[in-house]
Amino acid sequence: MKDSWTPPDQRDAVVNFLKRMNALTLLPMGNLLRWCELCPRKFARWRERYGKANEHNALVPRDHWLEASEKQAIISYAQAHPLEGYRALTFMMLDANVAAVAPATTYRVLKSAGLIGPTGGRPSKKGTGFVQPLAPHEHWHVDFSYLNIGGAFYFLCAVLDGCSRHIVAWDIRPTMREIDGEIVLQKAREAHPQARPRVISDQGSQFKSREFKTFINQWQASHVMTSPYYPQSNGKLERFHKTLKTQAIHPKTPLDLQDAKRITGDFIEYYNTQRLHSAIEHVYSG
């Protein structure tokens, strides 16, 4: 009993024997343990574990552990929504009454199932040194992005609200001139005539033109341009462009301009009314 773990039945038999000898002989338990060459500390632990199986360094089941059916529910939900990240999936499952777990739990389950691979990216510095808007229509981000539709290049122009991540206005234009940006901003302006936002753009020639400055001044809004060669400064809209392309444009492959507008419109409707945004605590932008 010194050099190996004692089986539970043998351990309990020793405890019963020593208790019986102590009651019959009235000898101190310490003397009996010394004669049996049994450590008093070990005997105390044996009495605490009396009637239980040995659990030396073993994983003891806990009430909060996930069952196999719960893990399978998380995996099945993730497979049904392959384009969503694990954090968004966590809150989506909570809304759909599928599972109520922490994001870390979702990550571990999907990682063990091979549904999450290594990212290998650097930590994002987006938002450092920038005062974020506290209400809708304080900041509007505007920019163009290339779209290859049926072998021809078109240009998506979108206006994104910096606080709510709502797409205020958008259009797919044949060119990316100053007038194209003004047309899309005018749509946003007509949708929210009382708004006087700070318009944030890069330093593209269309946004630096005299005509665009006149348009902003007549609107009584303000205009701020980001640092040159640093697209992260307009990262909110850049992130939307990437999301649109990876979740809508590339998978569905529009064949012409009309098809591209339909696909883009459907995705933006989902983006504004149903999609959970991690940057604003996984709530809807609408």
Automatic annotation (TrEMBL):
A Pfam family annotated for this UniProt entry: rve
Any one biological process term the GO annotation gives: DNA integration
GO MF, one example: nucleic acid binding
Domain Integrase catalytic: 132-286
InterPro entries in UniProt: Integrase_cat-core, RNaseH-like_sf, RNaseH_sf, Transposase_IS3/IS150/IS904
Record-given protein name: DDE-type integrase/transposase/recombinase
Species name: Phragmitibacter flavus
